[in-house]
């Protein structure tokens, strides 16, 4: 199976986690796009969605699916999104698409976070994928210096502005031994908005697309 077929398979499987009559949190990226396409097939069964990016909102609306403001809805039953890396503890690195802040907000507001990914995303230790950090533009250099002190090599994502008007530093070579501790440490650097570690609020379920079928990790 190709990587796209594996992504499609997990997107299809994720529909089983969507309770009828509820508001669904929707992530960002190519795997989440497959999920949006699957969601379109059952759109009459859900109340609406909350999107984690302008791109996903546009795709959802393109399918005639209602996109709601998080402030006007209560808690979300289920949030479905991809990841750049996941461990078997369901600690994630996210933000390859630059939507990490809204993704973390929607994940926090959701009862269940279902992560969908092809098998290439499963790792023993996080950090081979450069860790994205959303930063307030005026703090870019200051934050970069703090990241260097932590042993990382921050690289500005050139020509990219987030949906929130900020920049992204992709941090290479971080030794992520303790994702919960590092997530907290990075959150304390003034000028960062969000870091791409999803460890304090990990996924609840990982649907992993493999050549043998979809593996469910909980
Ligand atoms: C976007 C994300 C995505 O979930 C992550 O980049 C995975 O993307 P894809 O499904 O295209 O591999 O965090 O900010």
Task: Tell me the Rg in angstroms.
Answer: 17 Å
How much strand content do the residues show?
A: 25-35%
Order of helices and strands: HEHEHEEEHEEHEEHEEEE
Low-confidence stretches: none
List cofactors, ions and other ligands: ribulose-5-phosphate
Average pLDDT level: 97
- Biggest beta sheet summary: 6 strands, mixed
Number of helices: 6
**Pairing-aware structural class of the strands and helices?**
alpha/beta
Q: What's a quick, concise take on this entry?
A:
This protein is α/β, with parallel strands linked by helices and 218 residues long. Helices cover 28% and strands 27% of the residues.
Q: Mind explaining what this structure looks like?
A:
The protein is 28% helix and 27% strand. It contains six helices and 13 strands. The strands form three sheets. Strands 2-1-3-6-12-13 form a six-stranded mixed sheet. A hairpin with a 5-residue loop joins strand 4 and strand 5. Ribulose-5-phosphate (5RP) binds next to helix 2 and helix 4.
Keywords for this entry:
four-stranded antiparallel sheet; alpha/beta; 218 residues; single chain; 13 strands; binds ribulose-5-phosphate; 28% helix; six-stranded mixed sheet; 6 helices
């Amino acid at each position: 199976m190709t990587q796209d077929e594996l992504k499609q398979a997990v997107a299809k499987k994720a529909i089983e986690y969507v309770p009828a009559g509820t508001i669904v949190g929707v992530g960002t990226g190519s795997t989440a796009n497959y999920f949006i396409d699957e969601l379109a097939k059952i759109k009459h069964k859900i109340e609406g969605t909350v999107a984690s990016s302008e791109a996903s909102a546009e795709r959802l609306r393109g399918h005639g699916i209602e996109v709601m403001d998080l402030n006007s809805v209560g808690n979300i039953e289920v949030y479905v999104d991809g990841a750049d890396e996941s461990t078997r503890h369901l600690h994630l690195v996210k933000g390859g698409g630059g939507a990490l802040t809204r993704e973390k907000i929607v994940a926090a507001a959701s009862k269940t976070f279902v992560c969908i990914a092809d098998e290439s995303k499963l790792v023993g230790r996080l950090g081979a994928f450069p860790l994205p950090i959303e930063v307030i533009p005026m703090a870019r250099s200051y934050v970069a210096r703090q990241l260097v002190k932590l042993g990382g090599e921050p690289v500005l994502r050139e020509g990219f502005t987030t949906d929130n008007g900020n920049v992204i530093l992709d941090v290479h070579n971080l030794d992520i031994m303790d994702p919960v501790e590092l997530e907290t440490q990075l959150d304390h650097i003034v000028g960062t908005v969000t870091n791409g570690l999803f460890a304090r609020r990990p996924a609840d379920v990982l649907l992993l697309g493999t050549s043998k079928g979809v593996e469910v990790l909980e």
